[in-house]
Amino acid sequence: MKKILLHAALGLIAVVSLIPLVWMVSASLMPSGEASEFPPPFFPSKPTFVHYGELFSRLSLGRAALNSFVVAVLGTAGVLLLNSMAGYAFAKLRFRGRDKLFRALLAALVIPAPVAILPLFLMLRSVGLVNTYVGAAAPTLAGIIGIFLVRQFARAIPDDLLNAARLEGASEFRIYRTIVLPLLSPVLATLGIITFLGTWNEFVWPLVVLTDESRYTLPVALANLVGEHSADIELMMAGAVLTVLPVLVLFLLLQRQYVEGITIGGVKE
Amino acid sequence: MSATTAGRARGLPHEARAAALLLAPGLAAILVLFIVPIIAAFFLSLTDFDIYSLGDAENTRLIGLKNYANLLRDPLLWKAMRNTALFLFVGGPLTMGIGLIAALLVNSKLARAKGVFRTIFFAPYVTTLVAVAVVFRYLYHPRFGLIDRGLALLGIPPIDWLGDPRWAMPAIILLAVWKNFGYSTLLLVAGLQSIPESLYEAARMDGAGGWQLFRRITLPLLSPTLLFLGVITTIGYFQFFAEPYVMTDGGKPLNATLSVGLLMYKSGFRWWNMGYGAAVAFVLFLVVLGLTSIQLKLQGRQDA
Questions:
Q1: Is the dihedral of CA B57, B60, B64, B68 positive or negative?
Q2: CA distance B220 to B199
Q3: Distance between CA atoms of residues A17 and A197, nearest Å
Q4: Does residue A177 belong to the interface with chain B, where contact is any CB pair within 8 Å?
Q5: The dihedral of CA B151, B178, A234, A226: what is its sign?
Q6: Residue contact B16–A95, C-beta within 8 A
Q7: In chain B, what residues touch A147 (CB-CB under 8 Å)?
Q8: Using CB atoms, which residue from B44, B117, B187 is nearest to A119?
Q9: What residues 200-259 of chain B have any CB closer than 8 A to a CB of chain A?
Q10: Dihedral over Cα of A200, A249, B132, B98: its sign
Q11: Contact criterion met (CB < 8 Å) for B105 and A197
Q12: Phi, psi angles (nearest 5°) of residue B208
């Protein structure tokens, strides 16, 4: 009896979690106008992909998807490079003030990112980076959490391994590139997926920095579309599916790595 | 500390040089793209930087704390503060509370298919906020929205969720709870699994009941995770922006869903009063800083 109640509760939470997403897909496949009939059907009478076609042909959301992809890849590649170097240095190299510097970085995590937006916009404007992919990816590169993740992981690298390479005359950068980087690959997969999803989902910054419609990322394009086509539910749902599906699929494929990163950040320290 | 460990902590010269080179790019990015803008935001908030300044910076004057003085008299700020506080203090505990219930259910020894449930609960968290805000905009529709259809089955008359000033904030809070509770669940399940089973066994031998086990063992041992969640939720929820931007066309009805983040965005990028917008941003910063340090202090007292 207890077991049945337990699973009923779990099932209820699962249904509530999934219904909005299932309805999103279902409504995106309905013929125009069906989602606003009364009473509203849950499933399409005749499934159609016509709205997806319209997104790509008339509304150039294909372009927005490409923009999102480029910005997310740029941000992710940059973060992997910068944070793997810094995280390794914090974990394994000894220098004066190391722990103080690291604690200062962690303290900066409580600063809400939007505080930086107005000056950052003016700064990027003065160097001509407004309305560019690099400008859109810029705040991602200033991520701190990745340094923390890499440091946690890199601490397990045995010192003997590094010292042996040093005795053979390898330079510190060469040690980083040929020994440390391959060993870090699990945590870099984790950091990569977290950063990619985070940048893909980002809204405020791209909204501010991408002023030209041809440069909009998917969330910005979608928010813009709601303003113009809000009565066109089926079309809007197709746009929502296009935005959400890539991140959901990526999450399901790399779930283990993603969850690992989230829980390391949360449970330790 | 012995002489040798002190020497090690200071490091060898070539190691320090390598560290400097490896750290430089990452720290430079953080400095230029984050720390400098934060400091600049404060100075910007002391100026009357506006659309004319965008054309020519010469048109900017230092006006001291005048933006802050005006801000404190601005009814929009107080409206935004009230809505943001509501979002944080109602939405935060609801999110974490439901997250905790779900975590306890998933972690129960009787539960089957734990992994599947955990993945399903977490799915909303990874979705794009803008996209699901669009979805909920239609789910909340008083005529064909599924939520009011569901309520009708229970005999409850339709609610104009996003059109009624009394219901617009609750509607936005429910979306946030739906989207984020799975994150709490994920972290809390990890926290629960790190509690040794022997503690429960020992307490049961002493005759402790289910509620006592929860109160005396589970809750105290989860408190680091709960604190972390509390801090993360405070920082994140205080910035809420996309929900009213997408669902209520930027704070309607009657600014009932205007948030501090939205007020900053509008001041800076709609009305181009960037000095004023920076002052809003700094107020947001100070409030978040205050709230997180209170949380950390409370935790410190509990540990002592």
A1: negative
A2: 12
A3: 19
A4: no
A5: positive
A6: yes
A7: 26
A8: B44
A9: 224-225, 228-229, 231-232, 235, 238-239, 241-242, 245-246, 249
A10: negative
A11: no
A12: -75, 140
Of B121, B300, B190, B147, residue with least CA distance to A12: B121
Predicted local confidence at residue A171, as pLDDT: 87
CA B213, chain centre distance (Å)? 30
All structural domains of chain B: 82-248 (1.10.3720.10)
Q: What is the ipTM of this complex?
A: 0.92
Residues 55-94 of B with CB under 8 A from A: none
Cβ proximity of A84 and A186 under 8 Å: no
Where exactly does CATH 1.10.3720.10 map onto chain A? 58-267
Nearest CB partner across the interface for B30, out of A37, A144, A173? A144
Distance CA B47, CA B276 (A): 8
Q: Which CATH superfamily is domain A58-267 in?
A: MetI-like (1.10.3720.10)
- Please report where in the chains the tokens 């989860």 appear, as a residue: B222
Which residues does chain A have within 8 Å of residue B7's beta carbon, measured at their own beta carbons? none
Global confidence as pTM: 0.92
CA-angle at B296, arms to B293 and B298, nearest 5°: 110
The DSSP call for residue B269 is: I
ω into residue B253 within 30 of 0, thus cis?
A: yes
Q: Which tokens go with A8? A: 């009923």
- Neighboring chain A residues of B23 at a CB cutoff of 8 Å: 85-86, 89-90
User: Confidence band (pLDDT; 50, 70, 90) for B6?
Assistant: very low
Confirm if B117 and B186 have CB atoms less than 8 A apart: no
Tell me the two tokens of residue B180.
């984020």
Query: How far is it between the farthest Cα atoms of chain B?
Result: 78
Per-residue pLDDT reduced to its tens digit, B14-41: 788 889 999 999 999 999 999 999 999 9
Copy the structure tokens of residue B60. 């900017």
